Fold each of these.
Amino acid sequence: MKNSVKLKGRLKSYLQTSIYLGVLLVLVNLGIYVIDYRAGLVLTCFVLFYFAIVIALLLYNKPVIMNELISFATQYGQIQRKLLRDLDLPHALLDEAGKIIWTNIAFEKAVHKEKGYRKSITSLFPMVTRERLPGDVDEVELSVSFENNDYVAKMKKISLKEMALNSDIIEEKDYEGYLIALYLFDETALKIALQEVDDQSLAVGMIYLDNYEEALESVEDVRRSLLIALIDRKVNKYIAGLDGICKKIEKDKFLVILRKKAVASLQEDRFDLLEDVKTVNIGNEMAVTVSIGMGLDGLTYAQNYEFARNAIDLALGRGGDQAVVKTPHNTVYYGGKSQQVEKSTRVKARVKAQALKEIISVKDKVLVMGHRNADIDSFGAAVGIARIAATLERKVHIVLSDAPASLDPFVEMFHNNQDYDDDLIINSQQAVEMVGNNAVLVVVDVNKPSITDCPELLRLCKSIVVFDHHRQGTEIIENATLSYVEAYASSTCEMISEILQYIGENVKIKTVEADCMYSGIMIDTNNFMTKTGVRTFEAAAFLRRNGADVTRVRKLFREDAAEYKAKADAVSQAEIYRNCYAISICTSDEIQSPTVVGAQAANELLNIKGVKASFILTEYQNLVYVSARSIDEVNVQLVMERLGGGGHMNIAGCQMEDTSLVEGIGIIKRTLDTMLEEGEI
């Protein structure tokens, strides 16, 4: 083999230098022959002797040099192999399919395998699938973990095409074979350090006492200071146990500074402070409840504080007695299992009425919009706002598109009525065309931009007013000039009825308007059986004094035989899941307003003993509508929020896209199971 090896390059040129010099010497010898024959003859003898010595040395040294070169190459390869085996960086070679064909000692120690392990890399790192191996790209980087260690796996493709060109056994034409070099970089310590830094980052919180004044009024004067002291002690002790700082900034407000790790602990315990505070009782008839807002992961401390303010506003807007954790990417809710206490004072309603009057007075046009697939509460509230605008002598339009059949009797009362303009009720397209620079948009019975009747109006109108009684979610109408959202109100019609009483003495409500608003209250309270308070009956009494007729309203809500049968079928075929959740389907065949019938069926199911909550699914306009109802034991709003909907504690709903009725039932069951395991319901 040594004799067949041929040298090339600089080494070959170096060994042949003596030959080249000999040739030069021959040329010199010829020149000397021209000068002197005898001198040339002497030099010829020297040249012959020189060539004899050079050839002898070449023949003798070439095998020695070849032997040394081959020995060095062999030893060099062994050294390289040993260096790779002893390399501290875990390293392995894989074939194209990801099978391990060679490993070094560090890799074997990292994965606790002996030398000669030849299984697929996926058996060690399940996340390194065949699809993630280098194929079309030359290099791939993945985050992997093994036991308690975290690694960054870098995989490089090593082409074997050049080897095939020099091989006598592999056909090099179109050969595209390759190996994969795998390197593992341990980042366990780095991730632990980063996690520790993240855990120690600052989180800002705010704690508000929801019913501070009401709770104090329920105890005698001499014991009030004791109740306040016990509540303060409970809150301070709880925060101190988390190594945090709690500072009372007002009589019913606390500012809290915590580490992010402490917030994670609070989330694991599902903010049990919400329940602990309720245990403070020194004879007070009303349990004290708190709302908590936490802000974290902001770029600055000021941004965390802003997140906390937004979170506490959300908690209060959703009815209180709950915690909200807000980060730049999401908002998480905890608690919210108790009903918000109705405020007995109407000061807020009077202030909002005065603000609304000032806003409308300086505008040329008023547009009133409810939610998509409007109900009578939405329409009745819009009618109330229209009466306020008309009283202030402003042009008003109610935006109503694709109204359900159940609303037709109420809408018809305004059509062909000489007391109202023909363009009082318009559709979305007409509303967009009518918007001017000096128009105000009043949104009623909804606070989610995506489900308003015409979301485009929110962008076109600079002045926006919001009236709603639903608990707020993450998605809200932002930059509203005036926002009046009260979760304790039974309906938006109740809120507008109170507003009407403070607009001015010259407000004259017509009979049809009173009927619509009274109907809105009646439907949202399920005939005054759900979520009714003192102010609900006061609003109903105000409407009765202005001409609302109970008998006339009752006739407007009479059902036809098909709707009554559909409701009866939904009730009779209900499945009682986990012995306390009624789930059923309401058919939409030959029914003009299946969603309304479904909501009525959900109310009926609550009359069954042992049923804590009811869920009726209705397929309508290529969507599955879910109506959820409860009395007081289950917060159905939390269940519906898991499915992208919302509402109240006792009345909520959602819409499912690309889902069948059977699949929808399965989704509700899985959601209930998950929330029961987490202790959220």
Amino acid sequence: MINGSYFKNALISGANNIIRQKDEINALNIFPVPDGDTGTNMSMTIEAAANVLKDSDSLRIDDVASEAASAMLRSARGNSGVILSLLFRGIAKGLKGKGEIDGKDFVAAMKIGVETAYKAVMNPTEGTILTVARMSCEAGKAAVEVETDPVIVFSTICASARDALRRTPEMLPVLKKAGVVDAGGKGLCVIFEGMLSLLRDGVMIEAKKDAVTAAEAEDKSAEFFRNAAAEFDSVINFTYCTEFIICRDAEIEKDPSELRKYLETIGDCVVVADDDDIIKVHVHTENPGKAIEEALTFGQLLKVKIENMKEQHRKAAEEYEKEKAKNEAEEKKRESLKPVSPVDEVGFVTVASGEGLETVFKELGCHHIVSGGQSMNPSTDDIYQAVMATPAKTVFVLPNNKNIILAAEQVVPLVTDRQVIIIPTKTIPQGLVAMVAYSPDATPELNSEFMYTAAKNVSTGKVTYAARNSEFGSTKIKEGDIIALNNGKLTHKDKDPVRAVIKLAKEMITRDTSYVTIIYGHDITEEQANSALESIQSKAGGDVEVSLLNGGQPIYYFMLSVE
């Protein structure tokens, strides 16, 4: 039988295992835009459960499963993370009322988890994490007809999961063409294997010794900048940090101590170390040339490095001020996300990244902007906090990315004191148009229809770069190529983002087009943006209104909104 303590340690072992292998799982994402974050999303989702369980004293397996499921849901990121959380939420439901379980109990609970995950996905695709979960559960169901020992049953589940993973390329041609298995399915196998290591062998998979938690990283960063700040306040007596290695000349009978004495007359922080072959020197001085000239009287120079310490400290001071401002802004944001009572009639929460886009959404009436987007998926809890900090009886949520919709939908049952309506916007242009379509005179239900209908009528173009080598049809894509996407479909590649967006606009603009908005990212200069605007205006003709917006978004050089 498996009790709460064993299940708790098994989950922690599974979390540690995927944390160790998340980079390998990330690398399995084959679409050539930079969203290779499946391993990151899944590891962050289950790591939240592990962190909660480490402090838990629960001995009943239903309590442990419930605590884990709750933590995973709150921290679920991306489709893969949300599906993982839903799988364990269903398992928790199936284990309710049980203090310990056998293999038959676990398979019955897992069946509920698989059904929960499938129901949450509008169009389930086989060859993904869903398939791996389903097929492994089916194998477990067959196993309990013969043996109910939980370790034997879970071993069968893990073996079947690995087999299902190997078969995913046969179910999804895009995987087969790229020569990879499904990333989400791989993540689930890794978690199961970590759990089995504890249940069968009594061995907990440990996190990497060099793994650093987010909190530890923040502390290290803070310590660095505190130390840097102290350095900025000190006086730099000499400008140049000078280091060199002298190859000793056997015919030169000079004592290295003589070099040290000389260097101390022209600088400080003098270090001279020597052996039979070389002399290693470090000195802070205003005259590196004099130090080098003296060094040449001892032999030939093998290596020389000269750095301007004042310039280094100036840059460090700038970084310190930037980090300080960033920390203050984050603290201010955290303060703004405190729960408030729903007093207004309507409020809005949206997901976006980029200073320009955030400003536009706020001008359109959004109360809170959740930072995120492609490859930066916010968790369910991130969206939940923004909703609870919005003082409205009805809160509209715009995910603006297809990989965030599922996480946003999980917020609805968590909120009890206000209505939450998810407008399933898949792109930033859809989100902007949906906000414009809102009517203060209509009911929330009608506005939901208005906003979604408006969003669906927007065509979205994107210009980004390929994260890795790949093929699409007859088009070979190399890592770093500029690629253009028309409503998610790759249309062409280029070496210049401006040229790419001009060609993309020409493809997207039709006789029915009335408005085109060009949104440029932080890697595009104002000069480049204006060049694109001028060309697209001339090609669009006088009947089409073309506008330019500095979105400041990462990843995408340009986004086009075509109405």
